[in-house]
Design a protein that fits this description.
single chain; alpha/beta; Rossmann fold; five-stranded parallel sheet; 5 strands; about 5% strand; globular; GDSL; signal; Acetylajmalan esterase-like
Length: about 375
């Protein structure tokens, strides 16, 4: 006869499965798709590299990174997980929605050694840069997120992981996998600009960042990746953190969406170089599906159509979780600090904390990106 403890354990396990099923159903509803098209691609695994736009819990498991991470406590995670997981949003991220769209479980962070990696791994770390810490230090740029887990470090993790899980048959075992190399490469520019670097100095770093990402793509191809997405950067001049830090009384500095032109032009400059590099890379690997993830135009589409999508017209560039100023953002009293309020309805805001977006914004961005990328993935319809 089963013990009471065993019965309680079984009941708890079943309850967890029910909660997971409800959450995934909710995620599909958020994604606003009835028949997830990425399921036609038959991905069996997804591997993610990046920064806080896709970290699902690695930074929170690095002692130094975690000590400076606001995303480790509520209200982060409040609207989906009901707890903080290390994701820098009120709920799910783009990679979570892509996983759901693919019919796969949400990716577990690499640093969670007790996690199930049967359907892929998330190597992304909040605050990470494409360039190494040494490279940035040589240019007097400090990583204020306090992590050395740059893209090359994340790729080393992948190397170690594959050595123990698929070697020597990685090419065969990764044939149905999807790789996302980024978004990464934006933080070094933010760190530099916030520490007094000029726009021209930032532009001179772009080739180095792009080459680092290209080298990373070559590494994953070397392991057997055949379908790879390389996302570009958002129009950073539309984010509350930048709108606050680089606020000006010069009305000509802003575009029709009240985004800072210079910062958006920089993002366009960076994205153009990344796209050109991907185009050249395709010539070396004609049989690899290599796709640029157009985060820039996805965000502009969201901003242009925000009101019709249910976002509050008066809060399009205000942080939901924050306080102070025109954009509800204060660098010294950020989301997660005691006493900093959260808006009544996060789904009505695009920006969650002034830096990252809300779950609802990410869900719409994921939908746009899937619509844009699906025809290029050469999947069955």
């Amino acid at each position: 006869m089963e013990s009471a403890a065993t019965m309680r354990l079984a009941h708890g396990f079943v309850l967890c499965l029910v909660i997971l099923a409800v959450n995934i159903s909710y995620a599909q509803d958020l994604l606003k798709v009835q028949k997830p098209r990425l399921m036609n691609c038959r991905f069996d695994k997804i591997y993610q590299f990046g920064d806080s736009l896709s970290d699902s819990g690695n930074c929170v498991r690095e002692s130094l990174c975690a000590s400076h991470l606001r995303c480790k406590t509520l209200p982060y995670g409040m609207n989906f997980f009901r707890k903080a997981t290390g994701r820098c949003s009120n709920g799910m991220l783009i990679i979570d929605f892509i996983a759901v769209e693919s019919g796969l479980p949400l990716l577990n962070p690499y640093k969670d050694r007790n996690a199930n990696f049967g359907h892929g791994v998330n190597f992304a770390v909040a605050g990470a840069t494409a360039l190494s810490a040494e490279f940035l230090a040589e240019r007097n740029i400090v990583n204020i997120a306090y992590t050395n887990s740059s893209l090359s470090v994340q790729l080393d993790w992948m190397d170690s992981y594959f050595q123990t899980t698929c070697s020597p048959d990685c090419r065969e075992k990764l044939d149905k996998s999807l790789f996302l190399v980024g978004e990464i490469g934006g933080n070094e520019f933010f760190y530099g600009l916030s520490q007094g670097k000029t726009m021209e100095e930032s532009r001179r770093m772009v080739p180095e960042v792009v080459q680092t990402i290209v080298d990373g793509v070559r590494r994953v191809i070397g392991f057997g990746a055949t379908r790879i997405i390389v996302p570009g950067n958002f129009p950073i001049g539309c984010h509350p953190i930048f709108l606050t830090e680089f606020m000006t009384n010069d009305s000509t500095a802003y575009d029709e969406y009240h985004c800072l032109k210079d910062l958006n032009n920089f993002a366009i400059f960076y994205n153009h170089h990344l796209q050109q590099a991907i185009h050249e890379l395709k010539k070396d690997y004609p049989y690899i599906t290599l796709i640029y993830g157009d985060y820039y135009n996805a965000f502009l589409w969201l901003l242009r159509n925000a009101v019709s999508l249910g976002f509050d017209n008066n809060s399009l560039q205000k942080a939901c979780c924050g306080t102070g100023g025109e954009y509800n953002y204060d660098l010294h009293r950020r989301c997660g600090v005691q006493g900093v309020p959260v808006c009544v309805d996060p789904s009505s805001h695009i920006s969650w904390d002034g830096v990252h977006l809300t779950q609802n914004a990410y869900s719409w961005l994921a939908r746009w990106l899937v619509d844009d990328m699906f025809p290029k993935l050469n999947c069955q319809v």
